[in-house]
Design a protein that fits this description.
Strand order of the largest sheet: 15-14-2-6-4-19-20
Number of domains: 2
Structural class: alpha/beta
Shape: globular
Helix content: 25-40%
CATH class of the largest domain: Alpha Beta
CATH topology of the largest domain: nicotinate phosphoribosyltransferase
CATH architecture of the largest domain: Alpha-Beta Barrel
Strand content: 15-25%
Length: 450
């Protein structure tokens, strides 16, 4: 029913690229000052976390981890870039010329769930090498986690029916590629974006737009929908999906089956009251003997619209704008904060932005049924808390050591499967779409009392 392009796991990213200018100027000016006063080499720990979940959602999804690791590897300065940094001293430029991250990175694996104050990513090294990574890390994780968190809610609402990501035209051309990756991580079945398919090996899907039907007219200018359908079937086969709402939907369905026969793969509806239309179209298809012809729907769907169609005869959803923009939450609101200097905890105390100092790890406890209970955050170098008879999962894993990527990190498909398994562990109310408290509490143990 859906045409899929199976791509090998290749990448169109250049083999040699620089991510160093995906940054903010103040990171370089801080570096300049730190090199001047001798603080650049102080051992520091920075942490990525979120103080709250956007729009009072119940959980967030960690996404972009693999892209962050690649960005850190590619964080080098070219001579062309260095030549533009006329606000820096020669000694700082020499430091950047030879820069390679040599520190340690630990964090939640991609596809893990997170909650307020979960220590999602921990970066350790000198102040100089850690501070300049802030913007690129947050750019990736905020965007990807926002999309994945929204997409996971849509997958839950779809209740097992596949969703195709088709939002490329509703966002920046390169954001479309990484949004497709994040949506696939969250459980979407395919993407319309060819670059995402090529770069990440995501199944690609697509048939035709309304322009295809409109193209086919008779000599007198009247529509010839049958000609459009016939040509598409001759090119793509009976398993294709015909777009039947260019003119009159009832007539479009009748024409589709008249041309293709009852073995047509699917019909797509991209407008109107989708609930009422799908029921009517399903009845019409069955009446024409096309019992196995699937119904694909699109048209500004989000998790709430998908949930509203759960009782209707929809076989496949196509989602665009809402998923690539985070469905009302375009950022995950993650921050990158200094939490430890020379093994001494430091913490911001600003009103509304208070945080817990010190490097951290986390684990999640579970009942014997597998249902998650809470997250426990404890000192990075401290002993693991006693969980009693509860089962637990260590959430923080090594990602980089001495600037080198840990071997055997999960693939995109492995992370996708992992997320699907984690969603099942949430208490049933944690999967609700309504606004409420986070599904799990985050509890700190082993830190000095305030």
């Amino acid at each position: 029913m859906v045409e899929v392009v199976n791509s090998s796991d290749q990448s169109s990213l250049p083999s040699k690229r620089s991510t160093s200018f995906l940054t903010d100027k103040y990171e370089l000016t801080m570096l300049e000052a730190a090199l001047a006063d001798g603080s650049a080499q102080r051992n520091c720990t920075f942490e990525v976390f979120s103080r709250r979940l956007p729009n009072e959602r119940r959980y967030g999804v960690v996404a972009g981890t693999a892209r962050v690791i690649r960005a850190i590897q590619d964080y080098v300065f070219t001579e062309e870039q260095l030549a533009t940094l006329d606000f820096l001293s020669e000694s700082t430029i020499d430091y950047l010329r030879n820069f390679r991250f040599s520190g340690q990175v630990d964090g939640y694996r991609e596809g893990e769930l997170y909650f307020p104050y979960s220590p999602i990513l921990t970066v350790r090294g000198t102040f100089a090498e850690c501070v300049i990574l802030e913007t690129v890390i947050l750019s990736i994780m905020n965007a990807d986690s926002a999309v994945a968190s929204a997409a996971a809610r849509m997958v839950t609402a779809a209740d097992g029916r596949p969703i195709i990501e088709m939002g490329s035209r509703r966002t920046h051309e390169y954001a479309a590629v990484t949004a497709a990756r994040a949506a696939y991580l969250a459980g979407f079945a395919a993407t319309s974006n060819m670059e995402a398919s090529y770069r990440y090996g995501i199944p690609a899907s697509g048939t035709s737009a309304h322009a295809w039907t409109l193209l086919h007219i008779n000599e007198d200018g009247t529509p010839n929908e049958a000609a459009a359908f016939r040509s598409q079937i001759e090119s793509l086969g009976l398993d294709t999906t015909l777009l039947v709402d260019t003119y009159d939907i009832t007539q479009g369905v009748e024409t589709a089956i008249e041309v293709a026969g009852p073995e047509l793969g699917g019909v797509r509806i991209d407008s109107g009251d989708l609930g009422a239309l799908t029921r009517r179209v399903r009845k019409q298809l069955d009446g024409l003997g096309a019992y196995n012809t699937k119904i694909v729907v699109s048209s500004d769907l989000d998790e709430f619209a998908i949930a509203g169609l759960r009782g209707d005869p929809v076989d496949v959803y196509g989602v665009g704008t809402s998923v690539v923009t985070g469905s009302g939450a375009p950022t995950a609101s993650m921050v990158y904060k200094l939490v430890e200097v020379d093994e001494k905890p430091v913490a911001k105390r600003s009103r509304g932005k208070a945080m817990q100092g010190g490097a951290k790890k986390a684990l999640r406890t579970h009942r014997t049924s597998g249902t998650a209970i809470e997250e426990i955050v404890y000192p990075f170098k401290g002993e693991r808390p006693d969980c009693g008879k509860l089962n637990y999962t260590e959430l923080s894993i090594p990602l980089m050591r001495d600037g080198e990527v840990i071997e055997g990190l999960p693939s995109l498909d492995e992370s996708r499967d992992y997320l699907a398994a984690q969603l099942v562990t949430l208490p049933w109310e944690g999967l609700a779409l309504s606004r409420d408290e986070p599904a799990l509490n985050t509890r700190f143990l082993g830190f000095p009392a305030e």
